[in-house]
Write a structure and sequence with these properties.
alpha/beta, 16 strands, 8-stranded mixed beta barrel, elongated, 15 helices, TIM Barrel, Alpha-Beta Plaits, single chain
Length: about 375
């Protein structure tokens, strides 16, 4: 239905194709931008006339269109599509049912294009084996020697020339384009298959794995985890799954079901970035967790902020009443440790204790130390 409507609005010489999902592309000979915008307006008009009968209700649909000009013979097909896609996202940001033309001189266009290229790079990195797992230790604040409580699993991506790309540079693109589920599953499977046996030979070491909103929303998540644990013989008690407040509240029902199944099997649950939301303490009524990770924003300036100290003290007090552990993130100075210890916070994570390193090296060092 949509394809027929779009063909009605396009000139005879246009080539229309489906890219996937609800995305289409049209190749149109044009003489100027005005004509391109005119065709785009006709397309939007035709699409908005469509009515779909879904579940007994009539649904309207709309469209956002990005226009990119093929004025450079050296551009590849993927680069051309990326430019049009970047313009399309700009159109969506302006309110949908709009048209935008790709302009390399605008910051928004460059940002959108960079995000699209980053997303493409993630898939290439996965297929080429250029995604790596790192680990960062979390220590008991009351004993800041080399005693490891657990290791948070982190990720790094490398380019073809070996340059390391931090998560802050590729995770936003992965979230935007729905790739976090793919990344999370790869991290879980790769970590347990590659390091699960070694982990089980080490005493008092567990690993914490972050689960994105995309992953939590997957109804097959728990069956996937069960299968991987059985295949690798990794005890559930060695696994901690970290869920952010935002993920929990935006996916409440599925998150609650996952938490219940995971804890019943013996896994542990940590509520990450605690304190970032306005209703943080309210979530504790609905989620039975084993630990709380205080949002790093409260820890980074802890030494100079009485307000932050009061917030951390409140979180620590509530945690003690509930019988759950508390982890302070982003610890970078000894003064913060002294304050956290005085407030009864049990565990800490940050560059002061340990900088993330490849999990292979970290586990080797820990094994040699034992």
């Amino acid at each position: 239905m949509a394809t027929s409507s779009m063909k009605n609005a396009l000139p005879n010489e246009a080539i229309l194709g489906r890219l996937g999902g609800d995305e289409f592309a049209a190749l149109i000979p044009i003489s100027d931008f005005e004509y391109a915008e005119q065709v785009a307006a006709q397309l939007i008009g035709e699409i908005r006339e469509i009515r779909l009968d879904w579940g007994g209700k009539i649904q309207e649909i709309g469209a956002s269109i990005g226009i990119a000009v093929l004025d450079d013979t050296e551009l590849t097909l993927s680069e051309i599509i990326a430019r049009a896609d970047a313009a399309c996202y700009a159109a969506k940001a302006e309110g949908r049912n709009r048209t935008a033309i790709y302009d390399p001189d605008t910051g928004a266009a460059r940002q959108n294009l960079a995000s699209i290229q980053a997303a493409s790079g993630i898939l290439e990195a996965l297929s080429a084996g250029r995604l790596e797992v790192y680990g960062q230790q979390i220590r008991e604040i009351s004993d800041t020697t080399d005693h490891v409580v657990y290791i948070e699993i982190l990720s790094r991506m490398t380019t073809n020339d070996g340059t390391v790309i931090l998560p802050s540079e590729f995770i936003p693109a992965a979230e935007r384009f729905g790739l976090m589920g793919v990344i999370d599953r790869w991290i879980i499977q790769h970590t347990l298959e590659t390091y699960g046996h070694r982990l089980m030979t080490m005493d008092n070491v567990s690993i914490a794995i972050n689960l994105s909103a995309n992953t939590i929303s997957d109804p097959t998540l728990w069956s996937f985890l069960q299968s991987i644990m059985e295949q690798t013989n990794v005890a559930p008690s060695r696994l901690i799954f970290e869920i952010t407040e935002t993920t929990a509240v935006n996916n409440y029902e599925v998150a609650e079901q996952f938490v219940r199944k995971a804890r019943a099997a013996g896994c542990r649950i940590s509520l990450d970035d605690f304190g970032a939301g306005l209703s943080s303490f309210g979530y504790l009524h609905h989620f039975n967790v084993d630990s709380i990770k205080i949002d790093g924003a409260f820890i980074e300036k802890l030494s100079n902020s009485r307000l932050n100290q009061a917030v951390v003290a409140s979180i620590g007090g509530v945690a003690r009443e509930l019988g759950v552990d508390v982890v302070a993130e982003h610890i970078e100075d000894a003064d913060a440790v002294t304050i956290l210890r005085s407030l009864g916070i049990g565990f800490g994570q940050g560059f002061l204790f340990h900088r993330p390193q490849p999990l292979e090296i970290l586990l080797h060092d820990l094994g040699a130390r034992d």
